[in-house]
Design brief:
heterodimer; A: Ubiquitin-like (UB roll); 2 domains; 5 strands; B: alpha+beta; Aldehyde Oxidoreductase, domain 4; five-stranded mixed beta sheet; globular
């Protein structure tokens, strides 16, 4: 059986200590060790973006990150956005704009969009499309997802 | 109490129909709280994994599972030898879940393991030793029909080589087949010889359609559990729970009543979950043997390898018309790559022939298909169900015929387009038909005529970017499809003491938004806000029968069923109110949570109060109703004729492209669509369906290509199988033609499949408009386009062939 390693990190604002297999990726740790299933497995090789999380404020594919590399870092998942008012607006924008169909890509999309909105508060359509290029969706044709993110950024401009 | 004396509070009329109503399940999904099958774990659960074939076509000489069984943490290892009562599965009952004696494709299931963890199960698979004896691989359907071709399902022979005497009624899995023809369809109306004689112009071309697959974002999976009495609980992503319940029972040799299917939210369907696949039956075998719940999830690679595909088609179409633009005949021969086994892909000719026979008025039509066995992946059902392939050929020929007779392609289409009131040669009766409106609306909104003219004129001007515009139209079932004994759906509706509704429907939600639309329809009848409804739609122990999510039928069929149940509830409520308040039922209505005077909108009583009064009286009663809706469609006869759907959906799409003649890259810049949807029920939802379908069609036309070489899938991953990404999507302008179907719920017709159908055909026409070069083979990858533009694509020709 594989070697275990103890790590300590901040997950969604709470300090965690977990023991993980050294070969395990962060996605498997979140889903199977910690039990947070909002982060999705879509491909396991960084092509679909369904497993997008934020680590020290940067979005990345959790399937491509070793769990042990979370040690000492600040990790945010879709569940961690529950107490974030800025993210409330983004989620509501997804709902209101019809950006959710089967919903399987949605957590990853929102994690990526949230990251994008932190970098570019008021992105235009081209910027959003570029920013979501690494997140695949098979249901919506992306248009309503792009609309949702653009509208969320624009809403912050208007008082 | 006299109603008129009550101080008048007036409720203004309001309607939910046509509004932008967000999906009811969207907040949960957007928060990451929704539990898909991947997120559900049962206590005591084991993990199942399947060993697939290392060869494409081979005899299995031996399987040694002893080392796998000995691995700590392994509970069960099974092969066909452990399940002597295996029954054949699939549309043609031509394979066993665990393969017996022979593998016929890369995905073939040889053994399965249930273990304490996925890692242990995977480790166990590596310990299984299989000896094979290779057989010749047939990877091309044209080779499969050659005389003397090796057989994919040969008839069994005795030990001495003699033909075994086979019992009548045995399945193909047992008795084999004397040829490689899995299924054939022959359809005719009129007389094509006469049609050709009447033609001034005839064109004939061969079209080649490729392999693509669904790529649901959530991989396939299921959880199976047997209780102490042998009853089965399945968590499944099936799109057809009630038919599958019966089928699973057959495979397990138990009473269907002992099977319960719960459908957790699903990570994409698109037709992929319409058949029972080996992994599902194998998961049941493992759970039965282990006496523990077993969960099985695919990896993405496995999802590519072992999911159904859209069926590749080789198609030769011969079409004719008169100088005045009247279509005269259509003769079609197609060859479908069935793959190694038969799933719904083989039956897509049902839909293809509708397009050939009835999209336009064609007096003479002749259509022949053979779906043939090869050692390739087997084809299933996929949004559009053959219609993308048929439309690809037909709509190119519409442009080509128009050009030959020097007629404007729009005028040519309009001259031959169907109208309401027509009955086609195939017996389809068009009650509502906005086809001509679709053509003219899409053309006008996209400025088709001007752009087409200018693009053609600019073709030979300098510069490597050529603009093109192309149109295609489609016909698809929009009121269910009567292919089973019933095409119906049941509804149970109950109201509580606070005027909330629980809507229990047989219709499955697969992300398309059915729960929201059904709630809207119920609220429209009962005058309630959408927040008053809870939908239960995912448990065969609770929900009434439904034939399944397919054929764009849910809004139409389940919608009418929900309305039926709501109307019964309303009628009961109004009868009670009329009696209580001394007025006539037809003078009352329900609105805004109140019983009102229909004429004035004046409040009579709060609905919740009335319901409580009804409940807490001496003769206590609750408002609970049921309804079963069966559409007024008919089964086709043996010649495939008959009005198979209660309504038909129409659409026209105009695609604009930029072709880079230096690189062959085709950029899709804009799609303008006009869809006859009967009536828009939920504008937000229907836009989402159309946009998603358009982009799926874009992938089919430009980027997606499942590469199979000699039976081996070369690109089972998102790196090499290219889905469209956000920056590549076209601008989309979607118009809705509301033809108000008389049978449709609030006038609506089905639309789920429609938007994907025309895109590839319209793109081909757009490329021709841009460059003057016709593309007959999908997808339009840069290499293919570049070769075609530089005269390096030999003319495709497949000689029409008819199975004897």
């Amino acid at each position: 059986m594989s070697l275990k390693h103890d790590i300590e990190f901040t997950l969604n604002g709470v300090k965690r200590r977990v023991s993980v297999d050294v070969t395990m990726n962060a996605l498997a740790m979140l889903r199977e060790v910690i039990g947070l299933t909002g982060t999705k497995y879509g491909c396991g090789e960084g092509e679909c973006g369904a497993c997008t999380i934020q680590v020290d404020g940067v979005s990345l594919n959790s399937c491509l990150m070793f769990a042990v590399d979370c040690d000492g870092r600040n990790v945010t998942t879709i569940e961690g956005l529950a107490n974030d008012s800025k993210a409330d607006a983004l989620r509501e924008s997804f709902v209101e704009h019809g950006a959710v169909q089967c919903g399987f890509c949605t957590p990853g999309m929102i994690m990526q969009a949230d990251h994008m909105l932190h970098k570019h508060a008021h992105p235009d359509e081209a910027c959003v499309k570029r920013g979501l290029e690494g997140n695949l969706c098979r249901c919506t044709g992306y248009k309503k997802i792009v609309d949702a993110v653009v509208a969320c950024g624009a809403a912050e401009v208007t008082p | 109490m006299n109603v008129a004396e009550k101080k008048a509070r007036v409720i203004e009329p309001d309607s939910l129909i046509g509004k932008r109503i967000p999906k009811m399940d969207a907040p949960e999904k957007a928060s990451g709280r929704t539990r898909y099958i991947h997120d559900i774990n049962l206590s005591g659960q084991l993990y199942g994994k399947i060993l697939r074939s290392a060869r494409i076509h081979a005899l299995i000489k031996s399987i040694d599972v002893s080392a796998a069984r000995a691995l700590p943490g392994v509970h069960v290892v099974i092969t066909a030898a452990d399940i002597p009562d295996q029954r054949p599965i699939g549309v043609a009952k031509d394979h066993f879940p665990l393969k017996v004696g022979r593998v016929r494709s890369q995905r073939d299931e040889i053994a399965a393991v249930a273990a304490e963890s996925e890692e242990i199960a995977e480790a166990a698979l590596k310990l299984i030793k299989v000896e094979y004896e290779d057989l010749p691989v047939i990877s091309n359907p044209e080779d499969a029909i050659k005389p003397g071709a090796a057989l994919i399902h040969p008839e069994p022979h005795g030990a001495d080589g003699s033909h075994l005497h086979l019992k009548q009624g045995m399945s193909i899995a047992h008795k084999g087949k004397p040829d490689n023809i899995a299924m054939r369809f022959d359809y005719v109306h009129g007389d094509v010889v006469q049609g050709e004689a009447e033609s001034d112009v005839v064109v004939e071309d061969t079209f080649k359609l490729h392999y693509v697959t669904h790529c649901c974002m959530g991989v396939s999976g299921m959880i199976a559990e047997f209780d102490a009495s042998g009853n089965v609980l399945m968590y499944s992503n099936t799109q057809v729970p009630f038919l599958h319940k019966r089928e699973f029972a057959e495979y397990l040799n138990i009473d269907p009543a002992r099977i319960r299917i719960i459908q957790p939210p699903i990570g994409g369907g698109f037709g992929s979950k319409l058949d029972i696949y080996p992994f599902e039956v194998i998961c049941l075998y493992l759970a039965r043997a282990a006496k523990r719940p077993v969960k099985m999830l695919f990896t993405r690679e496995e999802e590519f390898l072992a999911s159904p595909t859209r069926q590749p088609v080789l198609l030769t179409l011969r079409s004719g018309c008169k100088k005045d633009g009247t279509l005269t005949f259509r003769q079609v021969h197609t060859l479908h790559d069935n793959g190694a086994y038969t799933s719904w892909g083989a039956t897509t000719p049902f839909v293809m022939m509708q397009t050939f026979s009835s999209l336009y008025r064609v007096p003479h039509c002749d259509y022949h298909t053979a779906a043939v066995y090869t050692n390739n992946p087997y084809a299933g059902s996929f949004r559009g169900y053959g219609n993308l392939q048929a439309t690809f050929a037909i709509e190119q020929h519409m442009d080509m015929l128009a050009e030959k007779i020097g007629m404007d392609p729009l005028e040519f289409r309009l001259k031959n387009a169907q109208d309401a009131g027509e009955v086609t040669g195939q017996g389809m009766s068009f009650k509502s038909c906005g086809f001509k409106d679709c053509i003219t609306t899409a053309a006008k909104r996209s400025d088709y005529a001007r752009k087409a003219r200018e693009n053609a004129a600019n073709r030979d001007k300098p510069g490597n970017i050529k603009r093109g515009i192309g149109m295609a139209s489609m016909l698809h079932v929009g009121g269910g499809a009567k292919i089973y004994p019933s095409d119906g759906c049941g509804t149970i509706l109950k109201m509580d003491d606070f005027a909330n509704v629980t809507l229990i429907t047989g219709a499955s939600e697969i992300g398309q938004g059915s729960e929201t639309v059904l709630s809207q329809l119920v609220c429209e009848e009962l005058g309630l806000p959408i927040s008053a409804v809870t939908v239960v739609n995912n448990d065969t122990a609770i929900t009434p029968w439904d034939v399944g999510v397919h054929a764009s039928r849910t809004t139409f069929i389940a919608g009418n069923s929900a309305i039926g149940a709501a109307k019964k509830a309303k009628s009961k409520i109004l009868a009670v109110a009329a009696k209580k308040y001394g007025t006539a039922e037809d003078e009352l209505d329900l609105r805004g949570g109140f019983v009102i005077q229909a004429a004035s909108g004046e409040v009579v009583v709060e609905l919740s109060k009335l319901l409580r009064n009804l409940h807490f009286q001496d003769k206590a009663e609750l408002v609970m109703t049921t309804f079963y809706y069966e559409p007024p469609s008919v089964h086709q006869d043996k010649g495939f004729k008959g009005d198979v759907s209660a309504a038909y959906a129409w659409g026209s799409q105009v695609v604009e492209v930029e072709v880079d003649t230096d690189t062959g890259i085709v950029r899709m810049t804009k799609v303008t669509g006009a869809h006859d949807v009967g009536r828009v029920l939920n504008r937000l939802g229907i836009e989402g369906q159309i946009e998603g379908g358009v982009v799926m069609g874009q992938g089919y036309a430009l980027t997606e290509d499942l590469l199979i070489q000699n039976g081996v899938m070369k690109n089972p991953n998102f790196r090499d199988y290219k889905l469209v990404t956000a920056p590549e999507i076209p601008e989309m302008d979607i118009a809705f033609i509301e033809s108000m179907d008389g049978e449709g719920p609030q006038g609506a017709k089905g639309v789920g499949e429609a938007p994907s159908i025309c895109i590839a055909a319209a793109t081909a026409n757009a490329i021709a408009n841009a460059t003057g070069v016709r593309m007959f083979e999908l997808p339009f990858t840069p290499e293919k386009v570049y070769r075609a533009l530089h005269g390096q694509t030999p003319k495709l020709y497949w000689k029409p062939w008819k199975a004897e």
